[in-house]
Amino acid sequence: MTKLRIAHLLDDFALGGVSRGLEIFTHPAIGTMFGSRVVGVGARAVWAPRCHADIIVTHLPPNWRRLALMASLRLANPGARLLHVEHSYTRAWETRSVAHLRRFRTMLAIAMRLADEVVCVSQAQAQWLAEAAGLPAERIAVIYPYSANPGLGALPLPDFAAARPRRIGAYGRFHPIKGFDRLIAAFRAGAMPGCELMIGGYGAEEAALRAAAAGCAAISFYGKVTDVADFIGQCDVIAIPSHCEAYGQVANEAREGGRPILVSPVDGLPEQVGGAGLVVDFADHAAIARSFATLNPARLLAMAWSGRAATAGCHQARAEQWAQLLRQLAAGLSRRQPALAKPDKSTLRDFPQNYTATAPEPR
Q1: Which parts of 180-306 are beta strand (E)?
Q2: Following DSSP, what letter does each residue of 86-129 receive, concatenated?
Q3: In Å, what is the CA distance from 2 to each residue of 24, 35, 230?
Q4: How are strands ordered across the β-sheet holding 277-279?
Q5: Element containing residue 55 per DSSP (H, E)
Q6: Domain boundaries along the sequence of the chain
Q7: How confident is the model at residue 1 (pLDDT cuts 50, 70, 90)?
Q8: Contacts of 239 (CB under 8 A, 6+ apart)
Q9: What is the SS3 assignment for 334?
């Protein structure tokens, strides 16, 4: 059987959350019918490449310059179905970052209408995008992202009753949007009594974060997180203090590792909590302290089990969601246009079959 061809458009090949998440397309639920390739585009490109594909998936955050690129996809790839995955923009991001709301939403509405289907990575993002871009609900699918991290499901649960400080872990890019500065401020203000704080990651804000933590022996820095299971295995609870987060892979990884989560009340993060943790306003030190006062060993253990149960089998489930959506797109492929005779070798890359490498990008 000839497989249908999928081209994934990316402008950043670092093994971060987006590119590591492409591993899902090698899952047998998808790979038996579809073959995936990655097409590189320049960050300032305005003309789409020939992708030699039946379905083209854009993973690029739209902006005014990229509207030309997205519009030219149909001209360069007649007959292909176009799917856009929105990884970046959210209601909290818009509130925090957009100075000219009407202009931004106009751009967003144009970009979303250039795709046959739009995928959001959380229900909260989908609700906001439907409002912001004026899209009907039936044109938006929600599929939570997933990238495999070996060893998470096998981690032993912490001994929450042990007579030692509980270790709160937080990891990711050292960027202002991740909120590590306010986590440090809350910790230093005494909002997490009886705990220690370990922060993992790297980035431009590292010097500022280390300065904010200076002199506090209970705060440590792990360094670059190349082994997620090793980091999570050293923690009792994982905090995600982000100012905005379309989904929050860290929260999913923590739940898979059997660690209770503390998440900001923004975007897709609360959707992951259920019985697996708490939604916390990291700007409100008194509220954090009240939340921590409720975290007795029995409750923490129940949260750990709840998170692990909620993530069991999620790799298979998400692959099946993608397979169903791709089959629906394939059913609408135009039969009127001939397939492109030859791929553009300058931009086309073989899709790596081990995209979740054993040593992913430091987090």
Answers
A1: 195-202, 219-223, 237-240, 261-263, 277-279
A2: E-S--HHHHHHH-S-HHHHHHHHHHHHHTSSEEEESSHHHHHHH
A3: 20, 9, 41
A4: 219-223, 195-202, 166-173, 237-240, 261-263, 277-279
A5: strand 55-58
A6: 4-147+313-350, 152-311
A7: low
A8: 168, 169, 170, 183, 261, 262, 263, 280, 282
A9: coil
* Secondary structure class of 202 (helix, strand, coil): strand
pLDDT of 13 reads 59
| Rounded (10°) angle between helices 180-188 and 206-213 | 0
> Cα–Cα distance between 185 and 176 in angstroms, integer?
14
pTM here? 0.87
Report CA torsion sign: 354, 358, 359, 361.
positive
Instruction: Give the tokens for residue 141.
Output: 């699918």
CATH superfamily of 152-311: Glycogen Phosphorylase B; (3.40.50.2000)
pLDDT in tens, 45-102: 888 888 889 999 999 899 998 899 999 998 999 889 999 999 999 999 999 999 999 9
With cut-offs at 50, 70 and 90, classify the pLDDT of residue 149: confident
d(CA 234, CA 362): 17
CATH number of 4-147+313-350: 3.40.50.2000
Cα-Cα-Cα-Cα dihedral sign, residues 182, 200, 244, 191 = negative
User: Could you tell me which residues come within 8 angstroms of residue 128 by beta carbon, excluding any fewer than 6 positions away?
Assistant: 90, 91, 94, 267
The single-letter code of the amino acid at 169 is G
**Who's near 293: CB < 8 A, 6+ residues apart?**
none
Query: 4-147+313-350 with 152-311: one CATH topology?
Result: yes
Helix 285-293 vs helix 180-188: angle between axes, to the nearest 10 degrees?
70
Q: How many Å separate Cα 119 from the centre of its chain?
A: 13
Tokens 């360094």 found at: 223
Place of tokens 């289907």: 117
How far is it, in rounded angstroms, from Cα 79 to Cα 338? 8
Whether the Cβ atoms of residue 52 and residue 343 lie closer than 8 Å to each other = yes
